[in-house]
Amino acid sequence: MTSLHQDINWRGVDLNLLIAFSALMETRSVTKAANKLAIGQSAMSHNLSRLRNLLNDPLFERHGHQMLPTQTALEHATTVETILSLITNELLRPSVFIPADFCGTFKIGLTDYAELLFAPALYDAIHQQAPQCQLSFFNVDRHSYHTDFNQHRIDVVIGSMTDMGKDIEHQYLYTEDHVCLYDQRATGLNNTVSLEQYRHHPHALVSPDGKLTTQVDDQLQRQGFERQVAVGSHNFLTIRHLLSGRDLLCVVSRLMAQLDIFNDQLTQCPPPVAIADFDIRLLWLHRNSNHPRNQWLRHIVANTVITQVEQLRAGQ
């Protein structure tokens, strides 16, 4: 604290004293002020005594049947009313978020997968209702998102995160499965891929952490098989471009395979290996659960994602 703050007797400051001061200014009577606040007259007199000690001024002096304010009391009256109004309207009363008036920044954390699928739709939906806002997309993954929440003050995160801590709340959005993606002409494959074909063709791998093995390799190994991973990249766009015109297979999420940003003619079919589905969730910090702006953002993000998924699946 500064020396100015250190000189103040903060223990003597009580919000109830400001309320008592306001009542005395309005009624000019200890009895009427006590009745207004539903307290005893002795309690009101005690509050006045504390006010006088706190502000080092008589504040109200008796003249006949009235308690008239001193010059100091008159000078402080507007300040006290301003303080009480701020506390009532800005602090204690829940604020209402008006998206059309919001000029700040929404920060949304997305995995590569979620950003490719949902960033354009999220931009359109949010800017339609909050046209003056800025929108910042942060790239996150299951290892970094918790740190990113606090470091970058991210509002919400979309991804397939698991093992959330107690400080994270989440909402289920949908479940995603996988397909095998490839170029029929380059691979010589038909509309389906057998396990034997799957094992003997080279693979491209979307690898956020740089590893060239996944749960698929673990499962193949348990069956006594292995596959040839020829290339890996954390970026799905890179892998998608590699598949076109090359003898490569890649297992990707079904919705990613359906993105309409490509003009290639790749084929998708069910993988010949069982691969676990994964859930996509919307996450936010527990401490922001009741904030009106965060609540509005969660609502519009969840609705937009669910609608986008329904539209993509309907176009299958």
**What's the CATH class of the largest domain, please?**
Alpha Beta
Supply the number of structural domains.
Answer: 3
CATH architecture descriptor name of the largest domain: 3-Layer(aba) Sandwich
Q: In what order do the strands lie side by side in the largest sheet?
A: 4-3-5-12-6
Strand-residue proportion:
15-25%
Number of strands: 12
Give the overall form: rod-shaped
Taken in chain order, the helices and strands follow as HHHHEEHEHEHEEEHHEHEHEHEEH
**What percentage of residues falls in helices of 4 or more residues?**
40-55%
**Rg measurement, Å:** 32 Å
Low-confidence stretches: 1-5
The number of helical runs is: 13
What key phrases describe this protein's structure?
single chain, 316 residues, alpha/beta, Arc Repressor Mutant, subunit A, D-Maltodextrin-Binding Protein, domain 2, 5-stranded mixed sheet, 3-stranded antiparallel sheet, 13 helices, 12 strands
Structure characterization notes:
The protein has about 325 residues and is of the alpha/beta class. The protein has 3 domains: about 10-90, Arc Repressor Mutant, subunit A (Orthogonal Bundle), CATH 1.10.10.10; about 100-170 and about 280-315, D-Maltodextrin-Binding Protein, domain 2 (3-Layer(aba) Sandwich); about 180-270, D-Maltodextrin-Binding Protein, domain 2 (3-Layer(aba) Sandwich). About 45% of the residues lie in helices and about 20% in strands. It is built from 13 helices and 12 strands. It has helices spanning about 5, 15-25, 30-35, 40-55, 70-90, 110-130, 145-150, 185, 195-200, 215-220, 235-245, 255, 290-315; strands spanning about 60-65, 65-70, 105-110, 135-140, 155-160, 170-175, 180, 205, 230-235, 250-255, 265-270, 280-285. The strands form 4 sheets. It has a 5-stranded mixed β-sheet with strand order 4-3-5-12-6, sandwiched between helices. It has a 3-stranded antiparallel β-sheet with strand order 10-7-11. Helix 2 (about 15-25) packs across helix 4 (about 40-55). It is rod-shaped. The protein starts with a helix and ends with a helix. GO terms for molecular function: DNA binding; DNA-binding transcription factor activity. Belongs to the LysR transcriptional regulatory family.
